[in-house]
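So, can you check this one?
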Amino acid sequence: MTKGIGLMGRTVGRLAAVAALLAPGAALAQDHAEDWQLYFPEPASPIMENIISFNNGVMVVITVITIFVMLLLAIVMIRFNAKRNPVPSKTTHNTLVEVLWTVVPVLILVGIAIPSFSLLFAQYDPGRVIEDYNPDDSITLKATGQQWFWQYDYPDFPGVRTITSIPLTDDLIGEHDLRLLSVNNPAVVPVGTVVRLQVTAAPTGVLHAFALQSMGVKLDAVPGRITESWFRADREGIFYGQCSELCGRAHYNMPIEVHVVSAEQFDQWIAAMEARDQAGANALLDQWAAERRAAQVAAL
């Protein structure tokens, strides 16, 4: 049942993505929230897949409990109303019932807690999800929340200067850009590579939160502290997120845009960034996005 619910949700997500791609002036089948969206975005990482599976399993448990309680209420209202029982029962307790309503909820909570803690640990330990995980094959992306924009650093590539990521103003938004989501300088990561995500905030700043839904990532950005998680993008594309901690008057102005590219393209982008050619690096991203759009349209 859990797999069936997950399949249904993913099918709906794919249909929505196709519709968005075919819409006039639409951007590349984007990984961002759609109008009236009721389900998770299409997962793009192992962690997000596990989160959706866990959510579906808990939803089944919640649904069964809700239906059971509603049936009990209906039985009580019909069988034990004052009209049918003019002389009320003087029963004070029932040992079996009291044992059941204590033991059964405990068992349910334990059953939920076990996969919950497993998922929680996996969000901080790639080795629990990825077979033959080698830390030396990962890269590190550091995101720093400022007031009010994000900055990105690549500690593994000292030649890449700090990237300041600011949302595009209305006069700069292109045909395939998204208002309040697209930025001037996005972060870039290679597909199929574990990304060690480090999140912090300016020491003299305020709390922020780095949330990238399709990757199953949501980390608090605390001034003067570093929180760490990871993700591995399993497909190329453009992924969006937002600051999810109310951080002040321009909270809305802190979108997250991450481009997932092939390993070869990532090397080209790094080379451009190390050459201090931000415009050239962004031109490469635009070119690759256009190629993906063309390939997706051709595949329809």
In short: Confidence is low (pLDDT under 50) at residues 1-28. The longest strand covers residues 139-146. The chain has two domains: 2-128, 137-299. Strands lie at 139-146, 149-153, 163-165, 187-190, 194-201, 208-212, 217-221, 227-232, 237-243, 255-261.
